[in-house]
UniProtKB/TrEMBL annotation:
<dbReference type="GO" id="GO:0046872">
    <property type="term" value="F:metal ion binding"/>
</dbReference>
<feature type="binding site">
    <location>
        <position position="160"/>
    </location>
    <ligand>
        <name>Zn(2+)</name>
    </ligand>
</feature>
<dbReference type="InterPro" id="IPR050134">
    <property type="entry name" value="NAD-dep_sirtuin_deacylases"/>
</dbReference>
<dbReference type="InterPro" id="IPR003000">
    <property type="entry name" value="Sirtuin"/>
</dbReference>
<dbReference type="InterPro" id="IPR026591">
    <property type="entry name" value="Sirtuin_cat_small_dom_sf"/>
</dbReference>
<dbReference type="GO" id="GO:0017136">
    <property type="term" value="F:histone deacetylase activity, NAD-dependent"/>
</dbReference>
<keyword id="KW-0862">Zinc</keyword>
<dbReference type="Pfam" id="PF02146">
    <property type="entry name" value="SIR2"/>
</dbReference>
<keyword id="KW-0808">Transferase</keyword>
<feature type="binding site">
    <location>
        <position position="133"/>
    </location>
    <ligand>
        <name>Zn(2+)</name>
    </ligand>
</feature>
<feature type="binding site">
    <location>
        <position position="163"/>
    </location>
    <ligand>
        <name>Zn(2+)</name>
    </ligand>
</feature>
<keyword id="KW-0479">Metal-binding</keyword>
<keyword id="KW-0520">NAD</keyword>
<dbReference type="GO" id="GO:0070403">
    <property type="term" value="F:NAD+ binding"/>
</dbReference>
<feature type="binding site">
    <location>
        <position position="130"/>
    </location>
    <ligand>
        <name>Zn(2+)</name>
    </ligand>
</feature>
<dbReference type="InterPro" id="IPR026590">
    <property type="entry name" value="Ssirtuin_cat_dom"/>
</dbReference>
<dbReference type="InterPro" id="IPR029035">
    <property type="entry name" value="DHS-like_NAD/FAD-binding_dom"/>
</dbReference>
Amino acid sequence: MHPLEPVACAELIRNSKSMVALTGAGISTAAGIPDFRGPKGLYVTRRYDPELVFEIDNFQRAPQYFYEFTSDFATAVRDVAPTFTHRFLAQQEQAGQLEGVITQNIDILHQMAGSRNVLELHGSYRSATCQSCRTRLHELDYPWWIDAMAGSSHPPVVHCPSCDGLLKPDIVFFGEAVNGFGRAEAMVAACDLLLVLGSSLNVTPASLLPYSTSAPTVIVNRGSVMLPPAPNRYFVDEDLDDYFTKVADHVRR
């Protein structure tokens, strides 16, 4: 394994012309958003049963389980602000250094930080589709979902404003294909620097993306990562915001 000091990471960033970031839950836990698979994650604690909440056939049969989760999730993240690392990536995009972000997260924090080119592999709550008439709603936010659930039945289930059919956020459930994986592969294949931030890379197909490039790859994550050592791969087991605060200081010099 090749550790990477912040000053060396900053030099890679300064020299990059087509950097891409792949982000996972670890970039958002510092903002107060619970992860799913970590030591205290929602799946591990079994606070929510992932098969009842996120399996597409179960959603069609009994959407109240998903919406009970959504009620808690939307309330928890409604007032959450992006982390330093979210904002750093947005600044790099604005400076022309970052081509885009590929994220496994559904929390919308990259967009809130100012990132424009964000590929959400697992979708998000920013849009929703009626399961009956296929009407699609756009530019949604957490207050919208909270209001919609408050005006629905108990347990809360949100219905289409056009036909009263079941409304599903455009989140990728178990049993559905991820969004834009071909585009994500192309982004990684074309990059000259890949940042893997806050992901243990144990969920396919996102875990396959680092294999699409031989460019320098910087992996910053607390804990183990399911990616073998290789030339040009640098592993950093540190807090993301602490590490990129130091990286940013060197990038600005």
